[in-house]
């Protein structure tokens, strides 16, 4: 049986909206905005994240996320005002104020078939840190992954010292599944990682629990 369709939308419109953020898929045209935000955020990202900082490195980064069926990249935008769900190019339809790029969330190593799993990578840009925007966006991505993408499981592998990232997945309801020494090669060395995961059943159980309260 072929995997479910993950065809790209025809335009860069938001795939999902929350009260404060919208998410949409990455495009080549986002390079200038993305790299400017990444350069302004290196003090926050290092040594955990190394997003592209130049047009040249962004081009390859975006190409992989767009072309590889085992990857998908989402941009997170802070919504300035307006509540129209048909926003495009990061501008709310009922507002002339451009929505501001707040971060990114990628799903990597997507496997369909019996596994139906993907691995998360994410980061907030400096102006969005500590404001709950990435938490809201992660919830949108999770629901999109378990809905339209038909995944069953999302994993997040996090270095133990990356306390902000650990707090993010805890808030999102991920469960701790283990510890793997020398798990991923990051910043020139093999780094230990904690393994966290969320399944579609966990989302259903959480929703049912809230409904009963």
Could you characterize the architecture of this molecule?
It is a single chain. By secondary structure, this protein is α+β, with helices and mostly antiparallel strands. The chain has helices spanning 31-39, 42-45, 55-67, 133-146, 163-171, 200-212; strands at residues 16-17, 21-25, 72-78, 100-111, 117-124, 153-158, 175-186, 189-199. An eight-stranded mixed sheet has the order 1-2-3-4-5-6-8-7, sandwiched between helices. Helix 1 packs across helix 3 (55-67). It is globular and about 45 Å long. The model is unreliable at 1-11 and 84-92 (pLDDT under 50). The chain contains six helices and eight strands, in the order ββαααβββαβαββα.
The total of helices stands at 6
Shape: globular
Output the strand order for the largest sheet. 1-2-3-4-5-6-8-7
Give me the count of strands.
Answer: 8
Order of helices and strands: EEHHHEEEHEHEEH
- What number is the mean pLDDT? 89
Q: Into which percent range does the helicity of residues fall?
A: 25-40%
Strand content: 25-35%
Identify low-pLDDT runs.
1-11, 84-92
First-last Cα distance: 40 Å
The structural class is: alpha+beta
Radius of gyration using CA atoms only: 17 Å
Largest sheet: 8 strands, mixed
């Amino acid at each position: 049986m072929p995997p479910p369709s993950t065809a790209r939308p025809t335009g860069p419109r938001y795939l999902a909206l929350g009260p404060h953020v919208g998410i949409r898929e990455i495009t080549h045209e986002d390079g200038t905005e993305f790299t400017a935000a990444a350069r302004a955020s290196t003090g926050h990202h290092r040594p955990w994240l190394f997003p592209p900082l130049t047009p040249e490195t962004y081009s390859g980064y975006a190409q992989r996320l767009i072309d590889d069926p085992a990857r998908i990249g989402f941009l997170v935008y802070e919504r300035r005002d307006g509540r129209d769900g048909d926003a495009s190019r990061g501008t709310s339809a009922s507002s002339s104020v451009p929505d501001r790029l707040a971060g990114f969330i990628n799903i990597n190593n997507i496997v369909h078939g019996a596994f139906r799993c993907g691995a998360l990578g994410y980061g907030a840009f400096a102006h969005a840190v500590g404001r709950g925007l990435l938490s809201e966006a992660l919830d949108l991505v999770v629901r999109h992954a378990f809905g339209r993408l038909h995944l069953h499981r999302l994993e997040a592998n996090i270095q133990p010292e990356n306390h902000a990232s650990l707090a993010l997945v805890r808030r999102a309801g991920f469960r701790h599944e283990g510890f793997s020494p020398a798990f991923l090669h990051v910043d020139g060395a093999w780094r230990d990682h904690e393994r966290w995961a969320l399944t579609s059943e966990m989302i259903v159980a959480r929703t049912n629990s809230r409904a009963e309260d």
